[in-house]
Amino acid sequence: MTSTATEEVLSFNTPHVPHENAIEAFNTILPTIKSEIVKSRHHWDKHEPKMWSRAVGLSDHELTAFTIEQDLVEVSSAATSYGNIILGKIRIPAVDDDEGEGFVHVRIHDPPNRVR
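Below the sequence we write its predicted structure tokens.
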């Protein structure tokens, strides 16, 4: 039987300010994160524009003008048999309006024995 990596199966630690290893893991795939954000917005703009409505008027570059060092504000992780799952909360600096700051939530996999 295959189990799914869910909160019910995994034991995530308490959300906290990212440590160096999380910053490094997110930086490793930063281009992919930014690309997926742009793809998500373009997809949802066609099907449900409300999803990214707070980013209306922002260029793709403005939307993804964040750095992991400054804008990864919170992480939580859990160990699995195939590495660590890291949940991250990334601030989108260009989204700051009457509703407050804008964030995206990202889930990444940090495999064991990754060359650092």
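The chain is about 30% helix and 30% strand.
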